Write a sequence for this structure.
């Protein structure tokens, strides 16, 4: 056993990272074997604060990096120079980086430069196309190069790492911590602040949930907005709910096409508990989000992914997720097929949990304990058929 407790620094900066590190931070803080330090780059502001509040996480450092319309290079250079003095001050043994954002890539690099061991949570996701998602595929590959311990969510992600010659003993299959967070959410009492969403809990209208934000989709976002417009006009009896990302480029492309339609509900980003409850209330999900692709299948909701490829093939193979690209007519045709044909809908509406069983944070912490010499790994994640989760 080391004489002093290993210091584990968790760095995050955007909404999905906050959701996915929350179960790990909570587990580390409750574990006497470690000193835990939490650093927020603040790449996101309001959208991050919503998650911190819900999970009760107060970062020890907040770099407050968010500035409207920053370039990727600006985010990365400000994050790198801001992280350096914090890492030098804290001297962590381990830096945890989650996923594939600019914050994640920078945290891994800054930790590596300062001699910490890098642990990558959600390691090994790949599309094989360096330009899609942009810049996330490149970020993941860069992080992989400086990582000591790769916490892969699934066997498929482990295989991707093995194909890049990462040693087997440096990879642990944990499941994705997003499912730990979703299971935590399933125990919360949820109240919708927006009266239009609250009213949906009293009716049985079909709800189509739509989210979009991907950088490589910004050009195509008017197509996505147009598809929602066509669908909302074709199905006036259904409700289309769009919690819109705060990026003005997303809002400017999507809102003008749909905001006047009576059966479209546009909101600001929803707090995580309200968003997962809305997902649970939905009939169908249209999205380009990574996290939503992982959550919706375990709620038994069919997902049409508005992208050309995905680094999350597991639910596509299971039949709950379908890639439909960003062409307006294709999105409309695929959604109409599910909204108008019950057999097609039922074939996709199977609850599957290829991404986790709620124990991913425990496996991650055990693997970090082994890496730092204070414990042993536990059994890896094996997907199995589980009861669908229910939220709200
Ligand atoms: C980032 C990540 C992406 C992740 C997404 C999750 C990178 C390169 N991209 O993309 O991988 O899927 O977060 O949502 O790291 N904004 C606010 N308030 C907020 C957050 C964002 O106003 O709380 C606005 C700002 O105008 C900001 C813009 O959204 O400039 C874009 O934010 P940014 O972090 O650059 O990229 P995302 O598209 O959010
Ligand atoms: N989410 C949320 N409120 C919203 C929309 C999404 O809390 O209004 C959650 C969602 O449950 C998922 C995560 O945010 O866990 C996904 O974030 P996003 O789509 O921004 O990023 P990605 O996963 O694509 O990186």
């Amino acid at each position: 056993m080391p004489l002093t407790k290993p210091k584990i620094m968790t760095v995050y900066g955007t909404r999905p990272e906050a959701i996915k590190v929350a179960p790990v931070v909570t587990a580390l803080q409750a574990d006497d074997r470690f000193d835990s330090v939490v650093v927020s780059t603040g790449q996101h502001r309001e959208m991050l604060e919503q998650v911190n509040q819900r999970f009760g996480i107060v970062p020890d450092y907040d770099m407050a990096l968010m500035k409207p319309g920053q370039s990727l290079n600006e985010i990365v250079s400000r994050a790198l120079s801001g992280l350096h003095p914090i890492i030098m001050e804290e001297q962590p043994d381990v830096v945890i980086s989650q996923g594939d954002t600019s914050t994640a890539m920078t945290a891994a690099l800054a930790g590596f430069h300062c001699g910490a061991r890098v642990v990558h949570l959600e390691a090994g996701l790949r599309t094989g196309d360096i330009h899609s998602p942009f810049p996330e595929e490149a970020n993941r590959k860069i992080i992989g190069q400086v990582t000591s311990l790769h916490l892969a969510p699934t066997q498929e992600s482990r295989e991707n790492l093995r194909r890049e010659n990462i040693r087997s003993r440096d990879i642990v299959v944990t499941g994705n911590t997003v499912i730990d967070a979703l299971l935590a959410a399933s125990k919360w009492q949820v109240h919708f602040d927006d009266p239009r969403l609250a009213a949906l809990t009293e009716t049985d209208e079909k709800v189509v949930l739509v989210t979009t934000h991907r950088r490589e989709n910004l050009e195509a976002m008017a197509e996505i907005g147009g598809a929602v417009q066509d669908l909302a006009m074709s199905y006036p009896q259904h409700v289309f709910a769009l919690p819109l990302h705060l990026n003005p480029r997303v809002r400017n492309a999507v809102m003008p096409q749909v905001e006047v339609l009576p059966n479209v509900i546009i909101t600001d980003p929803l707090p995580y508990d309200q968003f997962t409850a809305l997902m649970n209330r939905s009939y169908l999900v249209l999205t380009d989000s990574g996290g939503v692709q992982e959550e919706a299948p375990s709620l038994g909701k069919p997902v049409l992914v508005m992208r050309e490829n995905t680094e999350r093939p597991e639910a596509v193979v299971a039949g709950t997720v379908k890639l439909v690209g960003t062409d307006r007519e294709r999105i409309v045709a695929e959604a109409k097929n599910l909204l108008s044909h019950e057999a097609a809908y039922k074939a996709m509406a199977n609850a599957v949990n290829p991404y986790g069983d709620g124990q991913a944070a425990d496996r991650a912490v055990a693997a970090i304990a082994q890496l730092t010499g204070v414990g042993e790994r536990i059994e890896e994640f094996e997907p199995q058929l589980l009861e669908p989760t229910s939220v709200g």
In short: The first strand starts at residue 7 and ends at 12.
